[in-house]
Amino acid sequence: MASSALPSRRRRSRRAGLSRARRDARAGFALVSPTFIVVLTIVVLPVVWALILSFKHVELLNLRHVNLVAGPYTLRNYDLLFGSSEFLRVLRTTVAYSVFSTLGAIVLGLMAALLVRRPFRGRGIVRGLMLLPWVAPVVALTFVWQVLLSPQLGFVNAIGTDVFGWDAPVPFLSQEHGTITLFGASIGVPTALVSVIAFDAWRSFPFAFLFILARLQAMSPELEEAARVDGAAPTQVFRYIVLPQLWDVIALIAVLRFIFTFNDFDEVYLLTGGGAGTQVLATQVYSFLSARHDIGGGAAVAMFMAAALCVLLIVYVRFFAGREQRA
Amino acid sequence: MSAPRRRWSRNTIETRALRVLRPVGIAFFLLITVFPFFYMTVLSMRDISQVLQAPGSLVGSLSELSADAYTRVLKPASEGGEGFTRFLLNSAFLAGATVVVTLAVSILGAYAVARLEFFGRRTVSVMFLSVYLFPPVLLAIPLFVALTRLGLRGQLPVLILVYASQTVPVCIYMLRNYFETVPRSLEEAAEVDGCTRLGVIRRITLPLAMPAIAATGLLVFMVAWNEFLFALLFLVDDRSHWTVSLGVSQLKNVETPATTLMAGSVILTVPVIVFFLFAERVMTEGLTRGAEKG
What we know:
The structure holds two protein chains of two kinds. Chain A contains 13 helices and two strands. Chain A has helices at 2-54, 76-83, 85-115, 123-130, 132-135, 138-149, 155-162, 191-218, 222-229, 234-263, 266-272, 281-290, 295-326, and strands at 178-182, 185-189. A two-stranded antiparallel ribbon of chain A has the order 1-2. The model of chain A is unreliable at 1-15 (pLDDT under 50). By secondary structure, chain B is mostly helical. Chain B folds into two domains: 4-69, no CATH class; 74-293, MetI-like (MetI-like fold, Orthogonal Bundle), CATH 1.10.3720.10. Chain B is built from 13 helices and no strands. Chain B has helices at 10-44, 48-53, 68-74, 84-115, 121-133, 136-150, 156-179, 184-192, 197-208, 210-226, 229-235, 244-251, 258-293. Chain B starts with 9 loop residues before the first helix and ends with a helix. The model of chain B has no long low-confidence stretch (mean pLDDT 83). At the A-B interface, helix 1, helix 3, helix 4, helix 5 and helix 6 of A face helix 1, helix 2, helix 4, helix 5 and helix 6 of B.
């Protein structure tokens, strides 16, 4: 049976041999086309259109009458945007928010990954529980923290005033500037912004944790064991053996997290509504839309975000996509 | 044991300190991750006036605990409730339909990227990646404008397509990884036996990658269930179309007691966590596959 099946197979594949590559290519296009259509209509076209809208004077009120594609075009939206002092402030807040919550998430994630690296009883459960902030709905999480941090019924403020002797409850999410007195010195703190950053670092540390842990577990233990036998202390092993192997994955997480936080709308909007000095670019787009009814203005802010991200994406692709293919 | 003079070397001090610090650290992380969920659950069963009187007492008295908030939050607005049953149905429909659409589209796409040599295959991967990294708020404006002009804003099916476009790229990324683990020889054997391309996908690749597809589907469900921005922009005008997320976020600004809305938050969170427990292993491995190689 085998002897009769083999020649027929060979014959068939030789006959199909010439067209095989072409058939594959055709099938490939056919199978990818639904994805292309979805991405084209829901992502690419809207982005192009947003670019056009950002050069037009479109408001919610004239939305139904105005021609949404053809001219007249104007630079008004960008003029107003770059000319306002608010824009610089919002940009600074956005960068601070992105940098510090990325940093916080990576530090927390690295610590957590190192802690659960070696097996112990209940490790699987601990690992699963640590992922909860990342998978749970952002609306529920922001709401819980709003209540936890509330000056009236919040647990944190109750403990702070009763146990730690705070003078008064801290309005964590509604106070723009606060002061911390440490060893007699007063330091000004942007309270609400710090709270939002802390929340985001808390919510996204599992992402960093997951990637760093995966990398740690793929590491071969021999090098570390050898160093330990030679008398290297745990911190030295970490500094000279573990950390150098982690830089790649940490850099990857840093870029991804920075881009995600730069885009963040939900966290800031739900925690503070963009008030108390926490307005970021994404929430500003929304306020252009919902409060000022200025669609063109919102589109200009969004295009600025996209342009900034394009630069970051190029950096990302340059440094990481090539590396991934080599691996 | 080493010589006595080396007893307090840096090595031994650190090793001992770590033996203590490790459990402390793990406990700290467990506290910060689990406590908010614990607090949410407890608060949903307490009486708001008691909480206001003593916000520092965590559990209150046991007699105080009741499930009243859940009945209140689930009852329709016409009966004095908050109408979350309706929101639950909306969310479930949206998320379920998004899973179907996304999987249908991305299984085909992922198979093509994993198996077939075609022009632009590499470009496709990069393009999908960049879609995933684009700011959603940038899409929000033109979609908002287009749907308003077409009179389609507020329709749930439209949102399904938007969610699909947001989840297809990461699905293709994950599924591609799994499809590549299906032995090519199996597929070729089926082809020799006369299977068409779609037949091969249906009879060979899909059954073998089923656990991965299920996990990916659950991930899509979670993303769609949790989504907030597009739901806010498109559905906020009509309360009967609200999702659970939208319901919690909109009602917290009204005079609904925090404890009632905590019940809503628990209802919002529980399905996601249940699904996550089912799919955790496969899902996390799929996401971090690239990272292990370093």
